[in-house]
Amino acid sequence: MTRPQPSPDRIMQIGLGFEASKTLLSAVEVGVFTELAKSPADAPALRDRLGLHPRAAGDFFDTLVALGFLRRIDGVYHNAEDTDAFLDRAKPSYAHVGGMLEMANARLFGIWNHLTDTLRTGESQDESKSSELDTYDALYSDPLRLKQFLASMTSISHTANLKIAEQVPWQDYRTLADMGTAQGDLAVQVLLANPHLTGVGFDLPAAAPVFDEYVEENGLRDRLRFVGGDFFAEELPSADVITFGHILHNWDLEKKKLLLEKAWHALPKGGAVIVYDALIDDDRSENAFALLMSLTMRAVTDGGFGYTAAECVDWMTEAGFTRTRTEHLAGPDSIVVGIKE
Questions:
Q1: 27, 45, 172, 237: which sits with the fewest CB atoms below 10 Å from its CB?
Q2: Which domain holds residue 182?
């Protein structure tokens, strides 16, 4: 039997995948989908509305058609169904996708361009590279960059936050403390779905205005408040449940373990710590998204990296949690729960 000849197609598709990615990110940046949501347009009209130069605009629009992000009918461009639903800035759903893509375009795309430097030196390539500040102090020092970053955290976490709000037995608890809360979407979704709960969001003080605005928009000002501080230097707020959503992957092993130990001390008997991330599968061979996220953390933080559910369970056990469980949430995200007995 003749063995099939290997094909270079997959290699070329992934190797040049940045071209399609940047085309989409630039389309979000210049507002293609928002403009077409207002009204479809032919190429000259759309080009003028976006303020684009005629030299590349036609190829740009048609590439978006070929990639499936736009439809062209009798020379008139329309949004595809998914881009109209999620990439129109005027729609609330934009916040749950567009924010992450904006951050990817403005920040991650350039950082990933220096991945080889991280591989050779082990050093991060983020804002702290040319600063004496650490990763998050550097990131939080620019209010506009900070707001974009915090909104992107809502984008990447929102689906998992909705699952946590319905999947965890919240009827067993009364209070919640969300660590590294960003805009506060995890706490917001949990409290919206569970009216008996009250909570706090804990983050560096610079995040307070963005958090407060988001909480106000969701009508939770009387049940959810912000606490500013450094969770390595200070005690964690006391609560029945302490959550770390897309947080542990930011830190080195020592700091991961320290946060879990601090959570154990802050919780009452019967309390729970809830950790979720894009967890790497135990064989480290299947969840490509989680492994790519781990590479991202290597490139954008001083010591962060992804981890498996089994590793997280070991760290929780070492911290004192005697009962643990792991569940899938949505997409690449899974949850690890530790109970203090």
A1: 172
A2: 157-339
172 and 321 both lie in a single domain? yes
Q: Domain tally for the chain?
A: 2
Enter the DSSP assignment of 183: T
SS3 98: helix
Check residue 329 and give its pLDDT: 94
Longest Cα–Cα distance in the chain? 72
> Which of 57, 90, 123 lies at the terminal end of a domain, its last residue?
90
Nearest by Cα to 250 from 212, 209, 282, 278 = 278
Residue 118 lies in a domain: no
Burial classification of residue 175, based on how many CB atoms lie within 10 Å of its CB (0-12 exposed, 13-18 middle, 19 or more buried) = middle
Spatial separation of the C-alpha atoms in residues 99 and 285, rounded to whole Å: 29
Torsion, Cα of 143, 148, 151, 152 (10° steps)? -140
251 vs 170: CA distance, rounded Å:
28
Pair 169, 77 in one domain: no
Each residue's pLDDT tens digit, 111-127: 999 999 999 999 988 87
Element (H, E) at 70: strand 70-73
In a domain, 150, yes or no: no
Do 228 and 214 contact (CB within 8 A), yes or no? no
Q: For residue 304, is it within any domain? A: yes
Active site residue 249: yes
Could you read off the pLDDT of 231-251 as tens digits, one per residue? 999 999 999 999 999 999 999
**pLDDT confidence of residue 133:** 67
Distance separating alpha carbons of residues 135 and 196, to the nearest angstrom: 37
Contact 240, 299 (CB under 8 A): no
List, as one string, the DSSP characters of 107-170.
IIHHHHTTHHHHHHH----SGGGGSSS-HHHHHHTSHHHHHHHHHHHHHHHHHHHHHHHHHS-G
Per the structure block, which two tokens stand in for 35? 């403009």
Please identify which of the residues 96, 158, 249, 328 carries the catalytic annotation: 249
